[in-house]
Amino acid sequence: MRKIFYPESIAVIGVSESHDNFGRNIVKNLLDFQYQGRIYPVGKKGGSVFGLKIYESVEDISGNVGLAVMLIPSRAVPEQFEACARKGIKRVCISSGGFSEFGGERKELEQRLIDVARENDIRFIGPNCLAIINQDHGVCLPFVRMSRFPVGNVSLMTQSGGVGLSFIYMFAAQNLGINKYVSLGNKLNIGEQDLIPFLESDDCTGVIGMYLEEIDKGREFMEAVRGCRKPIVALKSNTTATGARVAASHTAAIANDDRVVDAALKQVGVARIENMHDMTAACKIFKMPPMKGNRVAILTPTGGYAVILADMCEKYGFEIPPFSKDFVDDVSKHVRAGVIRLTNPLDLGDMFDLQMVAHTVVRAMQEPQFDALILSWIFMRDTGLTSDSVNIFPILDSMLKRIPKPIALSLVGSPSDISQIQKTTDFPIFSSPEGSLRALSILRNHHSSAYELRSQKPTMKDLDEDRIKSALDAAGEGGRLGVEALDVLQACGIPTVPVKLAATAEEAAAAASGMGYPVAMKIASKDILHKTDSGGVKLNISSDEECRAAFEEMMKTTAEKVPGAVLSGVHVQKMAEQGREMIVGATLNESFGHVVTFGVGGVAVEALGDISIRVAPIGPLDASALLAEIKATKMLGAFRGMPPADRDALKDVLFRVSTLVTKFPRIKELDINPLIAYEEGKGCAAVDARIILR
Question: How confident is the model over 467-480, as pLDDT tens digits?
């Protein structure tokens, strides 16, 4: 990757003398950004541009070319790409659009690029992109004219060139500098998973920002993030369902693509934000020291701000401990009219000595019970924080060197004043109290979990692999396991409720009598997955007579409701003891591989949709998150007179399911529903399960 961002020379393919030629813009950007290497404009008509010779072919260039960027009609790209290969150019940016984004035969053009790159060991960005910017080396390759913007430690990668440029301008307006920028386009050769390791090793990059529309190599992406020790902030769009599909299992019906992406980002400690403005806020706040706890001090110039920020703290889960007596005694000496309530949040509206305001900020930061400070102020020229009498920003900078706690500073005032302040300081400033607090929550969440998440190891359980393989082989390719899935679970070490197959009413009664009433009865048919809907389930059968009658009724009703289904009889199962009905499952995602799901089970699982998701294999933090993230997580504690559920047993089932689908990738979908969770110390048991194979 380094050769792309630090080329010794650049060929710009698609340049002409015409003033409306976009290739000229690329050359001009390189000159304006003071690129120090050789620039070789290339265009069929030759001539010159900005005093540089235009070569008619890239192969006419006598010197070595480190990087080529091309902006020509899509149908001409493969030919020029092959010319680059003959010239020995190993790094290329293809800005041209008109490829698979238009479908049809355009995909064939992309395949030619892929083939040439593979045969000649070429790495390339694009097509359909704005290429790259590296201010550390003077490289600026977008085909739109660019003005110089602040240099900083944020590096951006985006699937949309336009969104990327918007970020650059938004950042520049708030003096937030960009070091490197890459527009990924169609990602035929280089994607996020390739760039993250490079940016991790790049000394000029401190924060990585991403705009994503899709993650097509999910597992590679996750591994790249796990190896990164720098903060990563991601805005992921394309979040709505792309269309419903007929699901063969509950799990697959619920686990749509964006929920999987969201789970994957959480799993590797990526800070996912909701909008473009939060990208700016997040990249700002990561200039601050880590937030090592959850406790904040709040200083404001008005009681209204105090109320707003207190409400926001509750929303984002911050604690607001009281100030110490020493702090209160100190501050009380310097108020004018004694109208300040010396509580946290602290309203400093009666304090007009700005030196004392600065002193109060320092004292609050020194209080050991606080992990961060929220400072919101209304800027006015005659009493503002940047008046001649005191400049708060050097004080804050100095404080951070001595007291490594973050400060979320927001200034409200005239737009021109605030803009000027932002341009004259490197200290992060937010435009609203709410924005500063939201950014602080991103910082806290990241430093509390990101690196721990990235370093966690998956928990793998011992399985009877021979027994599992035999069961899967017996089902065959694309096969389905109904009650046989319980045998697979037993081989995984997951407790199950005993079940027997009965071909006649008498066999059903004998089986029920043998295991003891009450029992449940379920129709046996590989053609019917959801048996309740077909009248194929009877519960709480308490006698031989009821059992025989239920058998006959189920066979008749099911045959009428599902004509053509092959009925093998009825499964008789001991009624499970009362507990929480949960669901544990796994399904195969095209990008990320197998994902593990957990949630509220029973017949209403699809209606409720209350599940959590993680990518397999999972670690201890993942298992805890799966239990904590469902909306009904309180149900796992003491609930309606029941003692807490056995969380350790549930986690063990999750680990075993994760291990199963990891070791046996033939499994396409798996449902355990319901999984009965008993009280603490008494485990759990799978009542029903199904497995669908590839």
Answer: 999 999 999 998 98
